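Hey, can you fold this one?
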Amino acid sequence: WMILAGLLGMSTKFVECALGVKYRKTNPDGSVSGGPMYYLSKGLAKRGNPALGRTLAVLFSVCAVGGALGGGNMFQANQAFKQVVGVTGGDMSFFVDKGWLFGLIMAIIVGVVIIGGIKSIAKVTEKVVPLMAVVYVGAALVIILFNLNHVGDAFAAIFNGAFTGEGVAGGVIGAMIQGFKRAAFSNEAGVGSAAIAHSAVKTNEHMSEGFVSLLEPFIDTVVICTMTALVIIITGQLHAGQELTGVALTSAAFGSAISWFPYVLAIAVILFAFSTMISWSYYGLKAWTYLFGESLRAEMIFKVIFCVFVVIGASMNLGPVIDFSDAMIFAMALINIIGLYRLVPEIKTDMNDYLARLQSGAIVRHKA
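Sure. Predicted structure:
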């Protein structure tokens, strides 16, 4: 169901990112603010529903702040903490009962970037994260290639679980819901958060950004998440590690095939968590300033709250963190998709116009 959600998510990502660029706002200082808040309010007003647009924009902003503090913050801190505990001794680890300490360290590092404006750490992360992604995908490919004879059985297990709901409360419906939730969490398609980031690109053609965004759900969910699932099943951790969840299960799967990989994964998870926190702090900040205005005081209040929630996330159990994250992201998606359905005829017209201009040569193709 994650694979199906990833493929369907390509269309929603296309529409929301194109709309994000089309209806973005340029601030007096030259910075850009965009995302569902703006295309819901402006786009629906253009279609004769200004009250509905303003209402949905405000509701989305509230949920986006919650999503930034939940899935984009607490969940990331929690997963990074669990992985660090796992590679430093498990139940015997120094950090095992010191989630607050790990969270405080992460909060200080995040705060240095988003409050202190020190971009050097973020720049280092930009360089290292792609490298860690390549290492992760490479390790997954090695495990899959060395177990090619089990790949067929692994896919059979995936499809069997999808249509029988084995191990998932609620049977097939439960498996479907779980798959779609995890897919939305991984690629953000339909959630609206990605549209906030894509709005900041330097382009005058909003449809070109829609086409660029198409690849994201495919690579993230259809390719990488499927590879992770295959590794978990091939290594026998699907049932052997039933008490494990999240990154701990992934780490156990990779570790059973490559003994030293959990240490690499721990570094990768911390870097991924950090980069995700920086991204979601931006999403949450844009939603916050939409509600309370583009002032330095409003921005600082949100940034401090964001750092506090890093500590809270690392100190909590995973279950409540996931429940809160899912609730916020579901609410964001529900509000966003209502707007997308109302605005999709506009994007269809824009797409036909863009393709016609591209075909006629009015838009110059850029060769790589």
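The chain has one domain: 2-360. Let me know if you want another pass with a different chain boundary.
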